[in-house]
Amino acid sequence: MNENKPVNKHNPNIATILSILFAGLGQLYNKRYLKGTSFIIVEIAFIITSLDFINLGLWGIRTLGTIPGEDHSIYLLVYGIVSILLLLIVGTLYVFNVKDARKQAIKIKNGWKAPRFSESIKEGYDKAFPYLMTGPGLALLIFTVVFPLLFAIALAFTNYNLYNSPPRNLVEWVGFENFQKLFTVNLWKDTFLSVFSWTIVWTIVATSFQIILGLFLAVLVNDKRVKFKKTIRTILILPWAVPGFVSILIFAAMFNDQFGAINRDIIIPLFGGEGLPWLTDPFYTRIVLILIQTWLGYPFIFALFSGVLSSISNEWYEAADVDGATRWQKFRHITLPHILFATAPLLIIQYTTNFNNFNIIYLFNEGGPAIQGQNAGGTDILISWVYKLTFDMQEYSMAAAISLIIGLIVSVFAIFQFRRTSSFKEEGNM
Questions:
Q1: What SS3 state is found at 376?
Q2: DSSP per position, 400-430
Q3: Coil, helix or strand at residue 370
Q4: At what angle do helices 33-63 and 117-141 cross, to 10 degrees?
Q5: For residue 423, which of 19, 107, 305, 344 is within the disulfide window of CB 3.0 to 4.6 Å?
Q6: Could you tell me if residue 117 is inside a domain?
Q7: 382 and 316 in contact (C-beta within 8 Å)?
Q8: Taking a C-beta distance cutoff of 8 angstroms, is the pair 124, 371 a contact?
Q9: Based on the number of CB atoms within 10 Å of its own CB, is 387 exposed (0-12), middle (13-18) or buried (19 or more)?
Q10: Rounded CA gap, 347 and 342, in Å?
């Protein structure tokens, strides 16, 4: 007598539909009661505690308020961004709930049997452990990094400024108007082009100088003929030991037009006159800033390159000597490629850091001197201009728009350079 094998009628489609209707129902259908109950509790708690807040947030980010003096547009914008983040987090969990229910239903249909309660708890703990450890950090990252970034991006598309501040006035969405002002309105256009061009010059020249100086000194000190290497390295690295802001303030005093040591004790005794306008002429101020940044930045580069040079095998240089290579050829084909291969990411970071190097620009002369017809100083870079727009002029939306441009420039530059450099290739393919 032949007995037919019993047919498993467990339907994955039913589990999928139930999990879509309400989180956890699909798991209950699969007889995964603990997991299903957990999903149900989470969804009910979310609906009870957050539904009203999310409704307010979505209305607020869409309208930014309708009654001046009563609705606070910035608060509503914050509520809206938080609501969107909460919806994204809950939506991700909901998608996971649906996929999990369908996946387990398919396994059950194919003959899989759920483990016992104690085994399922142990299995669930093992699988969830990485998420339990990274979950708090991820949540902190979302609300300390992603949220401020989204808030700044949103402000760039509003008209939030000193004369249009809530709660007395309502902030409105203005689209790309702030970006258009940067390229069409004379005051903003002239200032933006001037500040942007100086920012590029400052980034390239100051960073390149400190890299060149650090490389030159590292190669020089690493030469076999140089004695007292430890003493020389200690002396050369001393500028790095002094806090940067202290050095900047000292240099600001030394280059003061009226009482600074550079004019009073060097320029005037040697050349006469009243000295050079270090703080009142943008040309001289920019030169000083580049020199100071070179002084402050080269010790790190020097230490970095010194470590790389000490790891290069002498056999390579001996082989080059046998082939009759000159000092320049050895530097070009052995030393420099190894240095760039090992330090390219850090050198890129030096450029991106100086692009946003607020400290030296502001501490030395607060971005001055003033320039007629512009609302930025003669040595302001984009980040220091953003600071002034935010705290001095209360042009919050314009500051946010420029910050967005800064972020895009730095991101594009970093991605392009990382793709072009060989720092992420295999050493054998160098």
A1: coil
A2: HHHHHHHHHHHHHHHHHHHHHSSTTS-GGG-
A3: strand
A4: 20
A5: 344
A6: yes
A7: no
A8: no
A9: middle
A10: 10
pLDDT tens column, 336-373 = 888 888 888 888 889 988 999 999 999 999 998 988 88
My answer on whether 183 and 160 are in the same domain is: no
CA torsion 335→338→339→344, rounded to 10°?
150
Q: Do residues 129 and 190 both lie within one domain?
A: no
CB-based contact 302:218 (threshold 8 Å): yes
3-state DSSP assignment of residue 173: strand
Residue 19 CB coordination number (10 Å): 28
If asked whether residues 72 and 145 sit together in one domain, one would say: yes
Give the CA count within 13 Å in the CB-facing half-sphere of 96: 9
Q: What is the pLDDT of residues 373-426, one digit of tens each?
A: 889 999 999 999 999 999 999 999 999 999 999 989 888 887 777 676 554 454
**SS3 (DSSP) at 158:** strand
Q: Residue 341 belongs to what domain range?
A: 178-429
The DSSP secondary-structure symbol of 163 reads G
Q: Which of the 8 DSSP states describes residue 231?
A: H
DSSP 114: P
Strand partners, 257: none
**H or E stretch covering 190:** helix 186-222
What is the number of alpha carbons within 13 Å of residue 208 lying toward its C-beta? 6
Q: How far apart are CA 77 and CA 81, in angstroms?
A: 6
DSSP 324: T
Residues 58/81, Cβ–Cβ less than 8 Å: no
Asked, for residue 170, whether it belongs to a domain, the answer is: no
Residue type, 223: D
Give me the CATH number covering residue 354: 1.10.3720.10
Q: pLDDT band for position 2 (50/70/90)?
A: very low
Collapsed DSSP state (helix, strand, coil) of residue 7: coil
- Looking at the DSSP assignment, which residues form a beta bridge with residue 173? 158
Question: What are 198's two structure tokens?
Answer: 């100086």
Between helices 229-236 and 282-310, what is the axis angle to 10°?
Answer: 150
